[in-house]
Amino acid sequence: MSTGVGMSDCCLSGKVQQGTPAGSEKEIGGLDTYVAEPSDRSNAKVVVFLVDIFGWKFPNVRLLADCYAKEGYMAYVPDVHQGDSLPIEFLQTVEPPLPERESLTVTQKAASTAKVGATLGPWLAKHREGVSKPLIDDFLTVVRGSPGVQKVGVIGFCWGGRYAILAAHGDLVDAAYACHPSLVAIPADFDPVVKPLSLALGTQDSLLGTKEIEQIKDLMEKKQLQSEVKLYEDQVHGFALRGDWSSEKDKKAMDDAEKQGLEWFKKHLG
Could you tell me the superkingdom of the organism this chain comes from (predicted)? Predict the structure, then answer.
């Protein structure tokens, strides 16, 4: 478990974390899935990971799933993109570390924006809600109905963060945790939330500004359910899964975001 300070056994600091995932790959609910099992192999408490645009094979998300398994959860990382995730090389273009982002010239920013639009636009259209949500809902339904399963949590990052929020609209999960969700509709995605929801948001997220963050905080505070919104100072989009290893502040933010999720599920999944 993360200590919340500096590096830890499960810390994922760094754009692409070094290490070898310890789990296995199986087919669950018709989707290829990375599975990290707890030491007792119990599936009483399941946490499903909804990935960002870089997909289920991104080492960082698998290593984080391993961390959850060490804490007693059966961790599943389904391939909800069905083999069509974006390449890791695209990571720097989407969201460079804050110092690099601030040093870009106007021309460089324009070129980066054009590249992101040309690549990400068609991908998002292909993996729109009408396509992706049924896949995710079907997977959660299969997991929920599996023998031995008692509680189900869902954690999502960026693209997957929004679907973690949507999963909290009904009874497919018992609790949800969304890290720097992207493409959210405010208030439409938050008004129907009926399950405990935790949010980890960066104050320098280029996809979720200060105004939107305040709107989300206000909406969640007014709801009659357990929720939390934690802000991470100077953190950019994607910080909880792929922050900058060279920054002590970023390392700590990743540790703290990991700890936030583990504590949230300990509270709501038992």
Answer: Eukaryota
Reference 51, options 139, 130, 117; nearest CA is: 139
Cis-peptide into 96, omega within 30 deg:
no
**Token pair belonging to 11:** 């810390």
CATH class label, 24-241: alpha beta
CB 6 within 8 A of CB 251: yes
Q: Is the dihedral of CA 79, 26, 89, 251 positive or negative?
A: positive
Residue-range domain boundaries for the chain: 24-241
C-alpha distances in angstroms, 191 versus 13, 194, 202, 219, 257? 33, 9, 22, 7, 24
The model's pLDDT over 110-153, given as tens digits with 9 standing for 90+, comes to 555 555 656 788 999 999 999 999 999 999 999 999 999 999 99
Please name the residue that has the structure tokens 């999720």.
261
> H helices within 12-151, ranges in order?
59-70, 91-94, 98-103, 106-126, 129-144
Question: Are 47 and 70 spatial neighbours (Cβ–Cβ below 8 Å)?
Answer: no
* pTM attached to this predicted model: 0.87
Rounded alpha-carbon distances, angstroms, from residue 70 to 138, 140, 198, 258, 268: 27, 22, 21, 13, 18
Measured CA to CA, the distance from residue 253 to residue 231 in angstroms comes to 10
Q: Give how far Cα 175 sits from Cα of 36, 54, 80, 215, 233, Å.
A: 19, 24, 20, 21, 25
